Each structure stands twice: as structure tokens, then as C-alpha cells.
Write a sequence for this structure.
């Protein structure tokens, strides 16, 4: 089965081809238009998707060396995401399916982050996924393919959102997660103890207080500018520790609760080097197998949509042409 995957939920227009021989192409057109606004502007995102989607899909087919005639199904992100952006991908996919008489597969973006681990690996079921992105932070018990139980999630900000908002306070460009990661490598994670919220709750997270505490920590200083110049990397390292310690602690709780022997990381924040290191240490201590997608498959991409579409196609999980996008996860099930 040859699957064309299309992703347009936020600010990356992406297309990929996945076949029985694995991933054949993975093309991403990132939207630079948002940089000057310090965040994604939804209307600009949909327009940029509209402009680039055809060329992106074309390129993914060319790089795979597979013509549209040999595609067996089109998988597309149905949600969660920005409504206007999702609509562009969904309408494009439906157009292709209608004109070529192909089946359509609506993919849940958060599921796809999890199944990105199957591009290079073969995690054993059941497993627990720590899915950490810009919009979501979840612990998911994956009992079998597409058989998921949500153990817990964030009550307010997502982990990626915390990185981005704290980065903004520190004067770093958007998205700040990768910038904080880079800076943190030079810093001392023990420089300051930022609060780690909800440690008494097993599976739920809260990150909005951390952002506020960084804000007050800097606001109270008269030497703020020079302090930041001297200690930016220490603050980045301390913030990273506060976030990753909580994430890894709750992943550990999930392992104990479910008794799984396999864990996976998923989503944009799984690109974070401190999280990757700590999760590896924890998995070793717990004698668990850990899977983490390679960096290109952590942040938004279409390879994860194509591989998930492939797995759904194998199980006849097709959608009809009335498939509608959803902005939030709660509307999805
Ligand atoms: O999964 P993703 O690409 O998009 C969503 O589905 O939200 O995740 C994007 C998030 C952003 O908040 C970004 O700052 C964060 O992932 N991120 C990172 C790193 N790379 C991306 N956060 C920390 N460290 C990184 N290396
Ligand atoms: Zn994502």
C-alpha cells in the first residue's frame, strides 16, 4: 500500500509518502511569515498553506519516485489544529481522492506524533507515550494499535507552550523551545530552583505557574539586563530542568501504574536534549525500552501522518468524504 500523507494543522505545510518499504519522502515547507509576530497568526497560516500545498505534495511524490497513479490512499491531518489551516489540507486531500477515486484517511495529529516512533522502530505494545507538543501534554496508555487510554494531561499550558512563553519573557525568538534547549547546554541546571507544580498528582501537569515564576524572578531584579546577559544559559538550563523533571517523574508514575515495559516520547518537545537524556536515564533505571523519534519526526511533519495512515489503511480505517476538521481533541472521539 502506497500512502500519501498531508499535514497542515499549524504552520508547517508538509507531505510525505510511506509504502511497504518504509518512508519514501518527507517534505516540509515552514512558514517564515509568523516570525515577526512572535507566534503563529492563523489567517496568515491558512494563506501560506494554500500557496504551498500543491508544490509540497508534488515534491513529495517526485522525491519518492512514485506518481499519483501509484498512490493507494491519501492520509490527512483532521485535527486538532487551527481550523483554517486544517481546512486547506483536508480540502486538498478530498480533491485528490475525488479526482482519482482514492480512499481518504483522516488522521488524529496527536496519534500521529505517537506513531512517528514506528518510522524507524517497532515499539512493543502495550506502551506508554509521553506526548509533548506546543498545544498538548499527555500521558497515553497505548494498549494496542489505535487503542488508547488517556492517563492524564495538562490542566493549563502545554510543555512546549511553557518553553515558548518563557522564551518570550527571556527575549528569545519564536518558537523558543529549540533556543532554550541550545542555550541550556551551556548553563547550570541547578542555578535556580523554579517551581515544579502538581508533583502530588500522578498523571496531570500544570506549567502556567512556572512561566509566572520566571516573570517575577526577573521583574524583581534591578540589574535585569546584565543579569540576563550573564546568566541566560543558567536560567534556560534551570527552566529546562523544572519542565523535564516533572515530565520524566510522571512518565515514571505511568510506568509503575500500567506495568508496561516500553515507553515512547512524542511531539515537538521530545526533540529537547535534556528530556531525551533524562528519559533515557529513567528508562535504564526502570529497565524499560525507550523509543524517541529522530529529531526530524519530533516536530510537525507529514512522515508521521503517512505512517499513521499506512497503519490505519491496513486496518481499513477509512473516512468518508464528509470528514470534518476539528480544532480540539475533545471533539475528536
Ligand atoms: O509537535 P510540534 O511541532 O507542534 C505541535 O503539535 O504543537 O511542537 C512544537 C513545540 C513548540 O512549542 C516548540 O517550542 C517545541 O515543540 N520544541 C521544543 C524543542 N523543539 C521544539 N521544545 C524544547 N526543546 C526543543 N528542542
Ligand atoms: Zn504537532
Amino acid at each position: 500500500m502506497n500512502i500519501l500523507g498531508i499535514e497542515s494543522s499549524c504552520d508547517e505545510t508538509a507531505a510525505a509518502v510511506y509504502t511497504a518499504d518504509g518512508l519514501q519522502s518527507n517534505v516540509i515547507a515552514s512558514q517564515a511569515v509568523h516570525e515577526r509576530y512572535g507566534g503563529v497568526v492563523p489567517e496568515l497560516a491558512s494563506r501560506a498553506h494554500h500557496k504551498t500545498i500543491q508544490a509540497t505534495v508534488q515534491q513529495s511524490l517526485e522525491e519518492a519516485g512514485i506518481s499519483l497513479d501509484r498512490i493507494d490512499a491519501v492520509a490527512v491531518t483532521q485535527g486538532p489544529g487551527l481550523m483554517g489551516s486544517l481546512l486547506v489540507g483536508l480540502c486538498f486531500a478530498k480533491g485528490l481522492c475525488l479526482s482519482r477515486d482514492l480512499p481518504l484517511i483522516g488522521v488524529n495529529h496527536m496519534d500521529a506524533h505517537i506513531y512517528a516512533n514506528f518510522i524507524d522502530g517497532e515499539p512493543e505494545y502495550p506502551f506508554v507515550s509521553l506526548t509533548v507538543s506546543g498545544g498538548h501534554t499527555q500521558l497515553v496508555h497505548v494498549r494496542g494499535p489505535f487503542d488508547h487510554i488517556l492517563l492524564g494531561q495538562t490542566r493549563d499550558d502545554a510543555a512546549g507552550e511553557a518553553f515558548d512563553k518563557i522564551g518570550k519573557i527571556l527575549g528569545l525568538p519564536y518558537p523558543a523551545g529549540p533556543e532554550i534547549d541550545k542555550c541550556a547546554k551551556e548553563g547550570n541546571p541547578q542555578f535556580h530552583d523554579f517551581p515544579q507544580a502538581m508533583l502530588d498528582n500522578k498523571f496531570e501537569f500544570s506549567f502556567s505557574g512556572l512561566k509566572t515564576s520566571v516573570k517575577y524572578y526577573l521583574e524583581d531584579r534591578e540589574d535585569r539586563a546584565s543579569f540576563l546577559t550573564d546568566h541566560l544559559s543558567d536560567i534556560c538550563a534551570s527552566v529546562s530542568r523544572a519542565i523535564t523533571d516533572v515530565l520524566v517523574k510522571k512518565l515514571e508514575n505511568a510506568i509503575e501504574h500500567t506495568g508496561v515495559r516500553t515507553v515512547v516520547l512524542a511531539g515537538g518537545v521530545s526533540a529537547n536534549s535534556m528530556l531525551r537524556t533524562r528519559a533515557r536515564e529513567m528508562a535504564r533505571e526502570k529497565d524499560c525500552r525507550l523509543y524517541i523519534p529522530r529529531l526530524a519526526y519530533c516536530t510537525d511533519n507529514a512522515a508521521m501522518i503517512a505512517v499513521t495512515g499506512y497503519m490505519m489503511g491496513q486496518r481499513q480505517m477509512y473516512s468518508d468524504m464528509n470528514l470534518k476538521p476539528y480544532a480540539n481533541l475533545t471533539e475528536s472521539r
